[in-house]
Amino acid sequence: MKAVRIHKHGGPEVLRWEDVTDPSYGDNEVLVEIKAAAMNHLDIWVRSGLPGVPFPVIMGSDGSGVVAEVGANVENWQIGDEVIIQPGTYCGECDRCKTGQENYCSQYGILGESEDGTQCELIAVHSNNLARKPSHLTFEEAAAFPLVFLTAHAMLIRRAGIQSGETVLILGGASGVGSAAIQIAKLFDCIIIAVAGDERKLELCRELGVDHLISYREESIYQRVKEITSGAGADIVFEHVGHATWTDSLRSLALGGRLVTCGATTGPKVEVDLRHLFSKQQSIMGSTMGDVSGFHEIVQWLAERKVRPVVDKLFPMTEIQEAHRYLEENQQAGKIVLRPE
């Protein structure tokens, strides 16, 4: 088969669309013919220097496709089933896994980071890592869904404990994870403030139903949040940008507010004034991926058309280097999707 692989860290030039041996599959696994795979900022981190990557590695965490083969012990999937791939891997045996906290498993991994991923023609995954693709979605839309919605679900529901009617500030509202967060916050009837950088991205946030928009290139995030909330601030700040927005994000928090972060696309080094943190009784929380029950909940929302993936642009996997450049230049509004053509 063909696959997108890297053999070392570096720029887009290290990405190769090359011949790879077809994967074998175990008794509890399913072989999936990939129809579409999506990109995340994780792809850039893996490619450019994330420690512990097992070279050579097939890139990509998100994917959708058709079941091609099933292992001897697999009973819930049949050849021809259309599926979405859940990107987190876990042992299934530890206390964390047995209590539904798979993303806290000491062996937790992510496809395309800790092991071979989805940007290929065939992938073998555990049968528990699949969900049925809703029939109203294209494969491209389905591939754009898993990682960002799973991440946003964990951040807002599992970590921040979102409540109906709260004010939620979402940084990078037009990103994949930001657009997912907007839709989840809408399900809780929250007042949503979204931040984006240009008119196309602001328009996407508007289409998704945000209540207030902030153009960070033209306005102070912190000052606008204070104006919108009459000085109270946001109950939840949804962070994944990092250094560039961190100060504004902290200053935008309400008394007792919760800041939850899953990334640092502009840099990981930030400062916190502990006096403000304890005197205002605020919380700062990290979040990575999500649990299996959360995945099935968001897939149910997807099937019921309560949420939708946002696809920005399609690339053939043969143009993977150009796709990485497009993502690194922060041009996308929504998700970048690849097809194995």
Short structural summary:
This protein is of the alpha/beta class.
Any overview of this molecule?
Strand 12, helix 6 and strand 13 (212-215) form a beta-alpha-beta unit. This protein is globular. Helices cover 28% and strands 26% of the residues. By secondary structure, it is α/β, with parallel strands linked by helices. The strands form 4 sheets. Strands 3, 5, 6, 9, 10, 17 and 18 form a 7-stranded mixed β-sheet that branches. Strands 13-12-11-14-15-16 form a 6-stranded parallel β-sheet, sandwiched between helices. The longest helix is centred in the middle third of the chain and has 14 residues, at 146-159. The relative contact order is 0.16.
State the major sheet: 7 strands, mixed
**Low-pLDDT windows of residues:** none
For this structure, the CATH topology of the largest domain is Quinone Oxidoreductase, Chain A, domain 1
CATH secondary-structure class of the largest domain: Alpha Beta
